[in-house]
Write the structure tokens for this entry.
Amino acid sequence: MKALTFDVFGTVVDWRGSILREGRALARARELEVDWGAFADAWRAGYRREMDRVGSGELPWTNVDRLHRLVLDRLVVRFGLRGLGEPEKEHLNRVWHRLRAWPDSVRGLRRLKRRFLVATLSNGNVSLLADMARHCGLPWDVVLSAELFRHYKPDREVYQGAVTLLDLEPPEVMMVAAHKEDLAAARGAGLRTAFVRRPLEHGPGAKPDLAADPRFDVCCDDLLELADRLGA
């Protein structure tokens, strides 16, 4: 095995907690009353639905920044974010460029990088992933995005495309993710797989499926444990 490719939203960074922090700061500044947990969940769910529209051909290829903005414009009305001008809406939309890493992510990636090439393999667009890496200090060797292949995960073309760009064979690459559907698709494309449990991705009230799955090569609690398991 020579390379690790990582899902990013939820696996490496805490998207929900980051949106809550920035949303609450905006609410204090503008005297808004918003359920930011519900807002973050609706934004994430809406983006998934928009990706499905791209996959079905209902929408032409549209990158994640634009999909997030489509959803945000609806949520501004639904949640009563009154009086936001275009600069404020665009700044809020780019919160996805400023997501914070989970506490173990940077240290875990640095360890893994000693032994393997480490790369993103995210539905986020390249500029988003690059900005996030600078914001968090994520030490990627290379930024790979679904944008490069004009397909969104879990389409097979994303995993195959990453393997091709890395000039490797599928068994030489391990997909690392907190989402079992992502890993199942990667496994179907011939990659090795590592499941990372992120029990708080969807908030403290969520009940995600965290059970070890025999389909995957490794199941672990964070990236530091993954480094231990892979001898990094």
